[in-house]
Amino acid sequence: MKDFSNRYIFTFAVVMVAIVAVILSLAATLLRPAQERNYEVEKKRSMLESIGLFAEREDVTAMYDKHIRESFVVDLSGNIITGVDAFDIDLGKELKKEDNDIRLPVFKAVTESNEDVIIVPVSGAGLWGPIWGYIALKSDMSTIFGVTYDHKGETPGLGAEINETSFESRFSGKKLFEGDTFVSISLVKTGADPSDQHAVDAISGGTITSRGLEAMLKDCLGFYEPFLKSNMERQ
Hints:
By secondary structure, the chain is of the alpha+beta class. Helices cover 38% and strands 23% of the residues. The strands form three sheets. The protein has a six-stranded antiparallel sheet with strand order 2-1-3-4-5-6. It has a two-stranded antiparallel sheet with strand order 7-8. The protein has a two-stranded parallel ribbon with strand order 9-10. Helix 1 (2-50) crosses helix 2 (60-67). The longest helix has 49 residues, at 2-50.
């Protein structure tokens, strides 16, 4: 009788586990289209925010189609790679590949004031997890038009301030190049000199996040250096 009871409990447990697994699998399958749609909308919204456009969810796609005019992919030498959709590329995953396999997405856009810019993604690590964003550059391929940053789990009131407009606005007008030399943007803990075209004030109390963001800009935008320089020469 005891053996029968044990077999019953074991069988019941196995059946319940199987049922739960099926339910979870179905839920994941049914929810995937909505998750992918949310990811697409947020990605488009972030790119629009980097050029100063803020859209309601229902307006994002229309505004994206209006302002993002072209997209393409380049390699580390700045050469265009055909047959790849820039929107589908996850830069964070690309950066884990061997150099010869890295693909870099580029988006050509026009601002509300009809200024031509390009938008490129950046991806890195903060204090508690991933940080990422988009950098919009003016046609000189050096001057920052605007930025947008986000994070997965930075500390509220400290590192999490990277996605506050008050912080993001510090980057507008800063330059990535000093002459022909790529220098990126420094985040200065003690306060950047307002006349310094290559530095901004770091986040107060968010030292590690600031360092992570500084490294993200230097590393990611550094990968784009050949593309940016080759297009400077065409100006």
